Amino acid sequence: MAEQSAQLHQGVRLQKVLAATGWGSRRVCEELIAEGRVTVNGEVAILGRRVDADVDRVEVDGAPIGVRPGLVYYLLNKPAGVVTTAKDTHGRPTVVELVPSEPRVFAVGRLDADTEGLLLLTNDGDLANRIAHPSHGVEKEYLAGVSGGALSAGQLRQLRQGVELEDGITAPARVSQPEAGLLRLTLHEGRNRQVRRMCDAVGHPVTRLVRTRIGPLFDRSLVPGDWRELTAAERRLTIEAVAESARQYDSPS
Questions:
Q1: Do 75 and 105 touch, CB atoms closer than 8 A?
Q2: What is the DSSP string of 14-46?
Q3: DSSP 186
Q4: Distance CA 114, CA 234 (A)
Q5: Cα separation, 18 vs 218, whole angstroms
Q6: Catalytic positions, please?
């Protein structure tokens, strides 16, 4: 009891930390804690719990909450020709050159050099790993211009149900064809060049590829090459999307 009492008097109250990361008022955050949805270092938190933001791992519904000081989250509209690495041996521009140099950040997942669209950059490794999980990360939406004209109903069905690639069959995806030669695809997998390989497999190679959404994150006003910080609400929605993905894909069938 003495040890537990000492812990409760150290650090910042948990509901204050949650409120600062966009989870609502302190009253709302107190309700989250009371409902048993918040853990600290793997243990269900209780009201009155204090945390050290520098060392404690806080999760809501199983998804990590970035509480360390200095965490940043940038949403970038990546132009074509820019590579998703910190440095490039061929001298091509990189995504980290388009955002502030301090603090140092890294891209969450990858877009190949020719692919455009939304990319998240952060120094929050815990959340980044969950978003970009190769088999059950948060869903991503793409617009793909393809050659060969309109896809047949059978080809669309194949994309939706799964395509056999060299690294295995793809998971089911949502696919629509707004017009001939244009596809909208929503995937939760994150395999290398997956959309391009899927379209190649059905005989309609990609001519242009743009990622338009990452989980709940989208911004039609962000022009290529521009970036902005996520709002507190967007951070919360992203964490909720990660938690939902964990419930959907990690729970026993």
A1: no
A2: HHHHHHHTTS--HHHHHHHHHTT-EEETTEE--
A3: E
A4: 27
A5: 24
A6: 112
Beta strands 106-107 and 116-122 are antiparallel
DSSP category for residue 217? B
* Residue 185: strand, helix, or coil: strand
List, in order, residues 6 or more apart from 189 with CB less than 8 Å away. 134, 135, 136, 137, 170, 171
Question: Computed from CA positions of residues 136, 132, 235, 10, in that sequence, does the dihedral angle turn out positive or negative?
Answer: positive
The model carries a pTM of 0.85
How far, in Å, CA of 214 to CA of 235, rounded?
Answer: 12
Amino acid present at 98: L
Closest CA to 142 of 82, 218, 204, 240: 218
Q: What are the tens digits of pLDDT across the range 163-220?
A: 999 999 999 999 999 999 999 999 988 888 999 999 999 999 999 999 999 999 999 9
Tokens of 142: 């793409």
d(CA 214, CA 242): 11
Cα 196–chain centre separation:
20
- Hey, what amino acid is at 109? G
pLDDT band at 8 (very low <50, low <70, confident <90, very high): very low
Q: What's the full length of the chain, in residues?
A: 253
| Interatomic CA distance for residues 204 and 148, integer angstroms | 6
pLDDT band, very low/low/confident/very high, at 249 (cuts 50, 70, 90): low
C-beta separation of 33 from 17 below 8 A: no
Instruction: Give first-to-last CA distance, the chain, whole Å.
Output: 40
